# Entry
Amino acid sequence: MDSGPPAGLREGGSSPQAAGGGRGDFAVETRALNLWYGDFQALYDVDLEVRRGIITSLIGPSGCGKTTLLRTCNRIIERLGYVRTTGSVYVHGHDIFGDDIELVQVRKRIGMVFQRPNPLPISIRDNVLFGFKLHEARLRSVSGAEEDEVLESALRQVLLWDAAKDRLDRPATGLSLEEQQKLCIARLLPVKPEVLLMDEPCSALDPAGTEAVEEMIWGLRGDYTILIVTHNMAQARRASDECAFMLLGRIVEHGRTEELFLAPRRSETSDYIEGRYG
Amino acid sequence: MFAATPLNRRSHRTQSLAKAVFFLMTVALVVPVLVIVGTLAVKGGPAISWEFLFTPPRDFMTAGGILPALVGTVWLVVVALLASVPVGVAAALYLSEYAPDNLLTRTINLAIINLAGVPSIVHALFGVGAFVLFFGIGASILAASLTLAVMTLPVVIVATRESLQAVPHAFREACWNMGATRWQTIRKVVLPNSVSGILTGVILEVSRTAGETAPIMFTGAAAFVAFLPESVFDQTMAMSYHLYYIATQATDVPERTTYGVALVLIAIVLLMNAVSIGFRVYLRGQKKW
# Structure
């Protein structure tokens, strides 16, 4: 693991730019990002450019750093305490590791969805309005009608309105897993995030639920930039515009999804998508 | 083909023996409780009356009731709670939700465990030295309650920390990822979901506080005070100390009075435990996860 892949490997990734990048053309742009958990280095010089308004999937074998990279993009990884990073992450051109960065704003504008749906043990309505009340309703007075509007709009965007409209005040934990995951996405939307990070959002769902959530995520495309980690290559293939393949903490290859799957440029990529390891 | 071998039979005999031993141990545990409660009920039951509960003692404790001791115990418990719950809950919140895992935190945890292991008589002497003499409060309800509060602080901290940590981590992550600060997370999600455990700890603390004798005997409890306490700077009678006094110091106290006091004391403690258990069952039923 320490010897690392050959020096030429990184060429397969997005073209590295001079340090101090962050042109703002991309929703997320990492520059020479290294990350250590204590003494273990989990990310090596990651340069990733995520285009705005599309779905980019991150694939790779377990332990390759996909989730680590995702969690670095809203700096939630720092909660672990023993994490050290070098390099930069630009979101819409702003370095989120910069000096004058407010973490609350970072996490508001870059929402995250987890493997297991984690609705809060409160009503559906309160779940959806949780972030909204935290960020908006404390700045100005918000009428009940506006809250209802925000609630309906968020639930409609995740295709949950029809199923949930008659039980908005019931506990969110009573929903099915599929509905819970939709709710977890819905509650990010009222604060108008730029980027949605999703960490294997369908891995706890059955095939029908997976299909429904994939369809819903596809519907959010355009309005939000979505970066999604998945173990499911079929999912990456059918539900993303671009795909990045990671191995041992590095981006090996990044390109349009159909090109990456049909004509991978690197042998590591073709080995992985043909199932020779993983 | 399926007949028992000698080895099988020997295993079964060992297993039956083990079961019998464990059952006997369990019975041995229950017997003292039944004997204590039974003896108290039989010998002390006749002493219980409205007069016993609601009048002060008369004739050098040999007649009359226990009202000042009952009221005094309530004062001691309430003041001790007011002192220990805010401190204990705040400390537990810090240790559970904020403190990094470093040498200082581990040292604090060790100190809490050690504080729980300090004998109550040592707490009593500490209370005399610190509250009665050094801070000059004098022997009073305040000094006695502060001593009880210090003694029961580890119970509150440990119970609170455990119920905080029983709240699934996913809830915190969900909040943090929506840009909530730690405090917003605590107030909106962690505390509402751990309050049942915290209250259970508090009620257990109450029952322990009500029964302790050593920590109050030098710091604020008196053998006989004819009036009811009017402020925290008064001395007071207390149930536990009253029992100790009439059982060992006073002469010619009728046996049934002594048993009666013990019965009332144990009834208070059992009642509080029952409330605690009922409350926990109720709140657990409310939980949806």
